[in-house]
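Standup notes
- DV: blocked on the single-chain target, sequence here:
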Amino acid sequence: MNEWPKSQRIRSRFPTRAAAPAFLLAAIVFAAGAPTARAAYPQAADSYVNDFADVLSPDQETRIRTLLSDLKRDHGIAAVVVTVPSWNAYATGDPSMESFATGLFNAWGIGDRSRNDGVLILMARQDRMVRIELGSGYGASFDSKMQAIINGKMIPRFKANQYGQGLLDGARAVAAAVGGGALRNAQRPASKPAKAASAPARLPAEAIPGTPRPAPARVAPGRMPAELPPGQSLPPRAVSPPPFDPRSLRPPRSSQGSEIVGYLAAIGAAALVLFVLFRVVLGLGRKPRCPTCQIDMACLDEVSDDVYLDSGQKLEEALDTVDYDVWKCPTCGMHTVEKHPRLFSSYSRCPECGYRTLSAESETLMHPTRHSTGRKRIVSTCRNCHHQEEHVVILPILVDTDSGMMHGHGMGGSSHTNSGSHHSSGGSFGGGKSSGGGASGSW
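- DV (later): unblocked, structure below
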């Protein structure tokens, strides 16, 4: 049953046990001090529309782009529509769609850096989820407005598989809400109507030499005159400030939710490693005592201890996945077996026999691309009981980690034509941030 020579097993065993504290200390330093891995969010190819799930028709994409470019031009507000096949397809470590939307918003830097007024409309088709993420400059009242838009404008369209129309209706309603009123339609008119001929301008009476200047109108406080003399106007009135809204003092929600989760996980891993290290240090050099004779037991060598190991344990030692120590009382012959799993091994525990003799082989069935996920088949086989299992995993979408978009620079891409003008699709944002405000929905 043993596949390795006993001499080799004896030579490899003790350095590994002695070096275990060093490995564990290195793991502690790595877990506690390593920075959070860079989130693999998709790169932006356009400042207004990024249809990674391919749900928009060319006409719908053009209309959304025109609508959002008008919002940016007229009000200075940056908004972008993004569709993905699944937010889980990106290796970001986000626990939810909301966390993914906040991370994507902040990675791209949507909106103005000082005002934080950007808007992200995100739809995950396979997950059947939609999210409107708002910049941290919006108050709490906008969350309910965005929720009403999702429930009333977008979800009914999505339930009818009208994804493009739902995104267009939602983008139009969002633009009207954040722009302060009804905006122009996404479809621009073919031509502007001619201006009507204006009447010749009349000079004010006081501009004509020799014309007496009318006496100023006297108006009682708090009353408006029925009619003012020609050429006069009321003095400017002080504009009272809007009423104070206590909800505006709501503390901002944390924009570092995913980072906090990562640091907590690192702290937990470090604590676990410390616990294991403590147990290992206590175990080194300790000899168990015989419960009957109350004397120290002796550790058998690698050849003699095979008599007390079963076939699965012998195979684990041969595969170097587990090291077993057999302690025997020199007086009464009582023995005990101690199990020491290797820290690093390509074998895992078999769900059938329980031994650490399960090996895995993988085969890529479909390679991922920048716009679609891939698939990989994994076949696991136990070297002890010959148990076999097979499953298919989803490979994440490829992401260009050297993308300049992560730093707010433009991205090259395709071009679109609308009403005879040329629009470049390079994405560019202003460094805005989100603290998790907005609304979500599913269908």
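- Follow-up: The helical segments are 6-33, 58-75, 97-108, 141-159, 163-178, 257-283, 311-318.
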